[in-house]
């Protein structure tokens, strides 16, 4: 009995010592194991297996769209901002892509350029409104999102444009069981990790989100950093829009009804990035995205009804964030005031 | 004429909304000099420092740095010109490492990428140069002690190439042992030829450290003297413009030590253990100990912020389970926290709203009679404000503290815990606050007083309970010597030892 207790203590102590990102990957592994077991037990008679190729493909396909949005969202959230307009930006981008391509493969580069330009401009507008007009980012991006929605609703009653076969492959081609879109997403994630770690602008995002005033007093041009984050976030949404266009074969204004932005925010927060900014990173976000994708696939395979599915998802997100909040509390409790005593015990 | 002074400010005027805060002030600091700037709260010290830091711009006057005339409109300009300021609220990011904070905004790069190795090496060099060997460049600032955070600030200032470092109350949050470290650091800066402007209320530090002293009063320059040419008494006189009588008021006549109002038996939680404590009506019990010894933790446990998980607490003889501040208030306790800006006051609300806050939040306390007493309590504390609807953030530190005390007195508590009640308050206001603490005791309140300045605990408390590493190391009568208290506080002596 005591042996179990000591082992448990040792385990929890070891977990506490792990970094947040490591913990999230551990959680992802846990979700995979539990999900695999649930699927196996639930579908024992049918020989169901979560790790069958079809299910793996489903999982990985799910990661790419939310992934693109969540990578960008991580940047703005690190800066203590937020972007609620990414779903609308992605929908608009799918239309820009499909109408520019107009069925002709030679137009693909122009279309990609156009999408990045349009989404980048939306991001610049978001960033400028937040940085210069000092509008709360929640309201500012809700506003730009609504403006885009209004434009989409009046201009596009149905699907528009035509995506050539060649570009549709971005949506469907796989290497083994790994979809190309997921690979592109992972490459973008890698680039974002590098950007945050090795460039001044990326590094300064942590400073701006940690304390904008301290950052400003240290000579950081906080406005530029904030705008850069918003531009990059919106461009990620543009890439998500390209993926939407590739999957649908056409541009779809309806895409915004899926509320992708909320999935993205959930993934970022699940990934351990602080909503208040200044702490976290893209590596965690990728795990957050994966956790959501695994859950969705598990629910799908088990044929859980859609309403129960949303309830479960909601519960998982709240439970995860509540856990982080506990960790957070423990850490703040161990901060400056008590630091002298703490220093000794280390 | 040798090298020009590091700083030569002449005829500085500054007014806020037409109210003059500084008039025609001169300040001259030589290279490698440690220069004290003293004066009561409201004398204009902070304003002068903020002008040097580029936070405010002077209305009139000239500032020369190393012989070159400058004029700052933004803090960055001051930084680039070689003036660094270490404010009381540190300009550090807790989530970043020491090295990252030191180089924030000026990260070294190699081929366009941040060169973390160079950053760590440069920070290690800086720290070694300062004679600091127990601070790792890779440590997260949020996990550091206040003293180490301060070192990080100073290292940051040096890495910016500062010739003049302004320090605002640098020891306000330091324990005695850490103050010694700061002394060494200031000495090191002096050796390196970096000038220091040292703003402090603590006379001892000024006489220990500083070469010259500039005294301000009511926004005017009173005098600038060599430390060797003035006595502490004369300095205080110069600051307040009158002689202050004995530092600590006597116990008021008619104060009777009555029944036990607060009794903690075997109290403990994750940070403190074996706390046995008694405070009687009319008694002031002082809690002494080094930073991190558990002083504040006891206050927070008694008040239910981080409750005791072991032992019992009895208020006026009834055992109470105090697991939240709300329950503590119900039991008749009050806590004046050490951080009045974060925990004691709603800064953007009025004096009236703040003073009513405890009554408003606790229905069982709210009554016409208590609400009507508030103006009387405020005037009893000699609050100086432009009226009850003035926002408290515009009050001086001393007056803010009076509002905090008033809001608790309005609840008519039986036990009041005062955690660092005089932090950041000037000499005159301190003295008045001491008198008021005595008066509270005379009215039959049980007072538990926490102060990191030993002399305060010794001068005010009837009994002194000394803590060491979360436990009670010993108890001494009021008026004990600093040596006696320190013997317990540093663990050199404990009650288990034969006396």
Automatic annotation (TrEMBL), chain A:
UniProt keyword annotations, A-Z: Cell membrane, Membrane, Transmembrane, Transmembrane helix
InterPro entries attached to this UniProt entry: ABC_transp_permease
Domain of life, source organism: Bacteria
UniProt-recorded name of the protein: ABC transporter permease
PANTHER family: ABC TRANSPORTER PERMEASE PROTEIN YPHD-RELATED-RELATED, RIBOSE IMPORT PERMEASE PROTEIN RBSC
Organism of provenance: Glycomyces paridis
One Pfam family cited in the UniProt record for this chain: BPD_transp_2
Any one GO molecular function term: transmembrane transporter activity
Signal peptide start-end: none
Location(s), subcellular: Cell membrane
Membrane-spanning residues: 22-44, 65-88, 108-128, 172-196, 225-246, 283-301
One CC-aspect GO term: plasma membrane
Membrane-protein topology: Multi-pass membrane protein
Automatic annotation (TrEMBL), chain B:
Subcellular location: Cell membrane
Example GO molecular function: ATP hydrolysis activity
Cellular compartments per GO CC: plasma membrane
Keyword Cell membrane: yes
Keyword field contains Transport: yes
UniProt domain ABC transporter: residue ranges: 7-243, 255-494
Record protein name field: Sugar ABC transporter ATP-binding protein
Protein's organism: Glycomyces paridis
């Amino acid at each position: 009995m005591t042996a179990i207790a000591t082992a448990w203590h040792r385990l929890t102590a070891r977990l506490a010592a792990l970094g947040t990102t490591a913990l999230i990957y551990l959680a992802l592994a846990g979700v995979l194991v539990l999900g695999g077991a649930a699927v196996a037990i639930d579908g024992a008679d049918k020989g169901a297996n979560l790790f069958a190729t079809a299910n793996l493909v489903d999982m990985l396909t799910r990661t790419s769209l939310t992934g693109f949005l969540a990578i960008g969202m991580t940047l703005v959230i690190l800066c203590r901002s937020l972007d609620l307009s990414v779903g609308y930006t992605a929908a608009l981008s799918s239309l820009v892509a499909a109408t520019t391509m107009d069925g002709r493969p030679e137009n693909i580069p122009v279309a990609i350029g156009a999408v990045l330009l349009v989404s980048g401009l939306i991001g610049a507008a978001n960033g400028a409104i937040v940085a210069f007009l000092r509008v709360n980012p929640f309201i500012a991006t809700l506003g730009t999102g609504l403006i885009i929605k209004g434009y989409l609703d009046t201009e596009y009653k149905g699907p528009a444009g035509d995506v050539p076969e060649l570009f549709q492959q971005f949506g469907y081609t796989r290497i083994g069981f790994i979809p190309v879109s997921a690979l592109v997403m992972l490459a973008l994630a890698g680039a974002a990790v590098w950007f945050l770690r090795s460039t001044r602008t990326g590094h300064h995002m942590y400073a701006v989100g940690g304390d904008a005033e301290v950052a400003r007093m240290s000579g950081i041009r906080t406005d530029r950093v904030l705008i850069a984050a918003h531009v990059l976030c919106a461009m990620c949404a543009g890439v998500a829009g390209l993926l939407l266009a590739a999957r649908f074969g056409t541009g779809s204004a309806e895409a915004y009804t899926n509320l992708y932005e909320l999935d993205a925010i959930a993934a970022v927060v699940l990934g351990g990035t602080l909503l208040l900014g200044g702490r976290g990173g893209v590596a965690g976000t990728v795990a957050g995205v994966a956790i959501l994708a695994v859950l969705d696939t598990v629910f799908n395979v088990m044929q859980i009804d859609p309403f129960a599915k949303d309830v479960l998802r909601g519960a998982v997100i709240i439970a995860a964030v509540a856990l982080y909040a506990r960790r957070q509390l423990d850490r703040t409790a161990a901060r400056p005031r008590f630091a002298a005593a703490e220093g000794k015990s280390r | 004429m040798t090298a020009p002074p590091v700083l030569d400010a002449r005829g500085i005027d500054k007014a806020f909304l037409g109210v003059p805060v500084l008039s025609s002030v001169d300040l001259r600091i030589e290279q490698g000099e440690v220069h004290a700037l003293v004066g009561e709260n409201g004398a204009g010290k902070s304003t002068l420092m903020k002008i040097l830091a580029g936070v405010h711009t002077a209305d009139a006057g000239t500032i020369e740095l190393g012989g070159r005339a400058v004029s700052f409109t933004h803090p960055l300009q001051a930084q680039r010109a070689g003036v660094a300021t270490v404010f009381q609220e540190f300009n550090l990011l807790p989530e970043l490492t020491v090295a990252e904070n030191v180089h924030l905004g000026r990260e070294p790069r190699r081929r366009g990428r941040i060169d973390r190795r160079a950053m760590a090496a440069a920070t290690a060099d800086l720290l070694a140069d300062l004679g600091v060997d127990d601070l790792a460049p890779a440590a997260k600032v949020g996990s550091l002690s206040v003293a180490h955070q301060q070192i990080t600030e100073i290292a940051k200032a040096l890495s910016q190439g500062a010739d003049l470092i302004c320090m605002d109350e640098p020891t306000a949050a330091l324990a005695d042992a850490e103050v010694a470290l700061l002394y060494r650091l200031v000495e090191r800066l002096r050796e390196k030829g970096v000038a220091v402007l040292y703003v402090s209320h603590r006379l001892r530090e000024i006489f220990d450290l500083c070469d010259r002293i500039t005294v301000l009063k009511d926004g005017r320059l009173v005098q600038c003297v060599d430390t060797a040419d003035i006595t502490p008494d004369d300095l205080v006189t110069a600051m307040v413009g009158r002689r202050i009588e004995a530092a600590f008021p006597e116990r008021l006549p008619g104060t009777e030590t009555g029944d036990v109002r607060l009794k903690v038996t075997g109290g403990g939680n994750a940070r403190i253990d074996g706390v046995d404590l008694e405070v009687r009506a009319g008694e002031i019990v002082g809690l002494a100990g080094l930073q991190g010894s558990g002083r504040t933790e006891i206050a927070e446990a008694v008040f239910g912020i981080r409750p005791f998980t072991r032992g019992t607490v009895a208020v006026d003889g009834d055992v109470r389970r105090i697991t939240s501040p709300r329950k503590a208030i119900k039991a008749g306790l009050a806590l004046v926290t050490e951080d009045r800006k974060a925990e004691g006051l709603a800064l953007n609300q009025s004096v009236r709203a703040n003073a009513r806050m405890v009554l408003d939040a606790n229905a069982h306390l709210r009554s016409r009679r208590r609400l009507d007493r508030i103006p009387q309590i405020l005037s009893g504390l000699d609050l100086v404000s432009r009226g009850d609807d003035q926002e408290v953030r515009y009050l001086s530190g001393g007056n803010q503290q009076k509002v905090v005390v008033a809001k608790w007195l309005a609840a008519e508590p039986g036990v009041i815990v005062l955690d660092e009640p005089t932090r950041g308050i000037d000499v005159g206001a301190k003295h008045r606050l001491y008198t008021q603490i005595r008066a509270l005791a005379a009215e039959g309140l049980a007072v538990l007083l926490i102060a990191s300045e030993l002399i305060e605990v010794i001068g005010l408390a009837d009994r002194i309970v000394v803590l060491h590493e979360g436990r009670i190391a010993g108890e001494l009568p009021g008026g004990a010597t600093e040596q006696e208290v320190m013997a317990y506080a540093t663990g050199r002596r404990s009650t288990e030892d034969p006396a």
